[in-house]
Amino acid sequence: MVARKFPAIVLLSFVFALAMAANAQKLRISYDYASFVYDSTSSYVELYYSFDRNSLRLSSLNGRQSGGVLINLSLYRLPSDSLVKRNLIKVPISLQDSSTSFSAHNLVGMMGFVLLPGRYRIRVHAVDINDSTNLDSLNGTMEIPRFSQTLLSSSDVELCAMISSAPQSTDSSQSERSVFYKNTLNVIPNPSGMYGAGLPIIYYYVEIYNLLKTDRQEASPADSFYIIDYRVIDSFGRVHKSSEKIKHKFANSAVEVGTINASNLKTGTYTFAFSVRDSGSNAFTSTSKRFFVYNPGLGSPVSDSGAEARVSVMSSEFAGMTEAQIDQEFQEARYIATNNEISQYNKLTGAEAKRVFIYDFWKKRNTTPVSQVNSYRQTYMERVAYANTHFGVGRNEGWNTDRGRVYILYGPPDEIDRHPNETDSRPYEIWYYNSIEGGVNFVFIDRTGFGDYTLVNSTKRGEIHDDDWQRYLTVGR
Which H or E element spans position 105? Predict the structure, then answer.
């Protein structure tokens, strides 16, 4: 989609005159990050940071005011906590004289990394180079997703202070482009995530991938469109702003940018929930990010207590799903559902109750609970999509076949021994899994001759076992 840049450090000033930040006296650093597709094994991660330059101590020399910040960034891969990246950056500042005003300006920087999917611990330590006691440290975690190469997916949301069209450049000026340039735009992040008085407009940037890839056997006119939906949700799960747009597919990937006016939102924490749905296949992806609004003139702030679960559901991929779509997903997930869960689901009525159930169903199986991406569900649904593409027979979808079930539960086999056309024998396949229980196999036979391979034997504990399975190979039996 875009040639990724790997900047050392580029800074940009922008006015951010929030009353609560304008009189900052101590160094405070903010950071944010967003992940984008890179290749089949890695993701490209942009790390953004900012600080108020009013908080720095300046020294005078030859009629100039000078200072700066020394930033030490460390990334550790979890759970081993092994160091994978360390950057030490000096950010100098020089002004003509002390009368030069830079009131209420943030300095914004960005660094880019190629990282393997997974969970990381991040530590940012910043020190005023003129005052070693003026410092700040931040610790947090980052969850870097594994982007599908075939399923509809999206990047993280990047919340910004400004997005504008970049001037057309000649070949000679390519290297002079801003480090914030991507997809013909200058995308200036807002690492603090703070909006309202002084910065009332929220800009957002999202990349969308695999728009033209589908597991549908036959194309329809609806396959030419996709639906963009966003919602601004408060801590009680109430939707304050929303928008839906139908867009035409022009390429396999797309960029979605837009604005939200935060001037009429009360002070409080909000979630920006963004989703994309394919109008033909109903494939769905979503992402979300929290931000803070400071509008002291609008009365009492929005409370942040309670309702966390409702916010999570409303900002998840299930928020825009119909009852029929939720029913379909639970049907596809029945292989991992307990008898009690199936019984509970069958008693539910209405989309809202089922939406909460399916959210909790996947949440408790999530192996990376701090991530906005449920990697367990993502892997499971990728296997469902593969099964539907390769194992469907007639009107029976691939997930509902024996080969589909085995593929979904155990993943792709290490080896497949195929026998499609042997004399006086029905077609059959033997799938081998070398890392399960010391090595197991599954035998499927096409007993009808119509490509419907049924499982007749397996050495996996708990699966059907028949030592005399070869008798089914004989035509006529």
Answer: strand 105-115
